[in-house]
Design goal:
- By secondary structure, the chain is mainly α.
- The chain contains 7 helices and 2 strands; from the N terminus they run H-E-H-E-H-H-H-H-H.
- It has a domain of 79 residues.
- Helix 2 links the parallel strand 1 and strand 2.
- The longest helix has 18 residues.
Length: 135
């Protein structure tokens, strides 16, 4: 989880969030720092994000925006190949949106009364724990 000001977009925060991933291994050793697969909406379809995912060898399902498609097609053979897209995986992206809506059912998360980022981070963490324990 990464707390940013409300006017900041989500897409530029993808790389800092992925850099923070640390999943402990049950048998010990170094924690995992790379997900098996990443899904996102068209907002995450930028050259920077795609280059980062390719460099880290992270498979992803992110639809290409129409303006990016048109630009790629206009460049002809030098425009590159179309991005891979798995529609069956993309259908599951609504699960994240539904989770965010359930978190925002908590008034303190939806309206962000907390002025300090670390306090708001704690508020969201408590809301997530409540969802996890009541599920």
């Amino acid at each position: 989880m990464l707390v940013t000001p409300g006017q900041w977009g989500d897409a530029p925060q993808m790389i800092p969030v992925l850099d923070r991933i640390r999943v402990p291994r049950p048998e010990g050793g170094r924690p995992r720092t790379r997900p098996d697969h990443l899904s996102g909406d068209k907002a995450y379809s930028s050259r920077r994000n795609r280059r980062y995912l390719r460099r880290r060898q992270i498979n992803h399902t992110i639809p290409e925006r129409r303006d990016q498609q048109a630009h790629r097609l206009r460049r002809g053979s030098s425009g590159g190949r179309p991005t891979g897209f798995d529609a069956a995986r993309y259908v599951r992206t609504n699960e994240v949106e539904r989770l965010i809506n359930r978190l925002k059912a908590n008034r303190a998360v939806a309206t962000r009364f907390d002025k300090r980022a670390y306090v708001f981070h704690g508020t969201v963490t408590v809301a997530a724990l409540r969802l996890w324990l009541c599920a």
